[in-house]
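Chain A, query sequence.
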Amino acid sequence: MSATELHHRGIDRQVLADELARARARTLGLLDGLDDTQQRAQVSPLMSPFVWDLAHIGNYEELWLLRELDGRPAIDPTLDDLYNAFEHPRWQRPALPILGPTDARAYLERVRNEVLLLLDRIELTDPCPALQLDGFVYGMVLQHEHQHNETILAARQLLSEQTASPLPPGLDEERPAHQAIDVASLPEMRLVDGGPFVMGTSTHPWAYDNERTAHVVDLAPFLIDTTPVTNERYRDFIADGGYDDERLWKPAGWSWRGEEQLEAPRFWQREGTHDWSVLRFGRRLDLTDHLYEPVQHVCWYEADAYCRWAGKRLPTEPEWEKAATWDPTTGTTRPWPWGTGEPNTERANLGQRSDGPHPVGAHPAGMSPSGCLAMIGDVWEWTSSDFRSYPGFKAWPYREYSEVFWGSEYKVLRGGAWSADPVAVRSTFRNWDYPIRRQIFAGFRGARDA
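Chain A, predicted structure.
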């Protein structure tokens, strides 16, 4: 269920309780099968120990759904410091006296029980404080938990490089093996007409501050890829010496590529002279069986270099959103690329229903007005844009969600991935990360001036 659907159904207390339960079941399920040592371990300096994420989820929920809403004291005042992401970088967290797996689960259960008791009597409609209106704070907590679940999923993938571990639930389900539409019959790129369109939102009840406010952006006409770049096309880039041609790379990217000795996306491995395999949650798969899926686990520098090789560039963030949502026939912005209906299995690959992206033509019902496929789901898509505020931005309800990250240090990703829950995905949702990050479920599509 997406945040939009929750809002359209009305702010029903039982629906909110059900969504809180669904998010928690996913959280705990992602840790099923891991012993205490694995849950306490840090699989990479880029990731928190699993139990840090677990208790942090509970601490965030306590802060916003108990203390902010009800003014009650902290359950344990020492936890605020231990689980403050801005005070303790990820590489420091294993040395902290964090809760172990059993205590972390007990803490989460205590918080949740009190949250549900409070939910029975809290006001969610006018007149009530803005934090409560339309269940905003519950939506914020739900999205936060699902975002951490995606991070835990990435850590599970990294763990599978190091040791055999059980497959997280939901990742062994049947996935489409073939494209539902022959993308070879479609144009490689779509023309998006120039002119103004409305970007961002001022009305979505659960949108974050960085998505606000809706504003008009006037763009020149441009071309954008019909689909994300596939494993097949990215393999061609490698075979043509893309990782060895300095002319294709930004100076910082070229330097980093050399330091890391990059030759392919993360989790790819050479098999013989010309073939590749890809690691997915402990299973090494023949890449030839996955050629028509979007490439994932590439950083911004890799995406940028590929686009130069292909005679293209990465789309800007406004170009991406216009191609995804602007309907030129009505002169309006669609809530989703396909229209007003909610995400489902025919329209998008979301919600951790499989172990990775689907073939790029697997969801033709999700096509955008511009004719682009897979703009929601499958992979987060890098854009060329730095993470900046929109006109009229106001930090709310706390600066640390967006404002402290503004600047050229971070690049924006859009669209959501197969690993993202629909509650935490929408056409205006903005993700961001360092341009060197590869453990995230990120791919890209190219663009070009018209």
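The mean pLDDT is 94. The CA atoms of residues 201 and 214 lie 4 Å apart.
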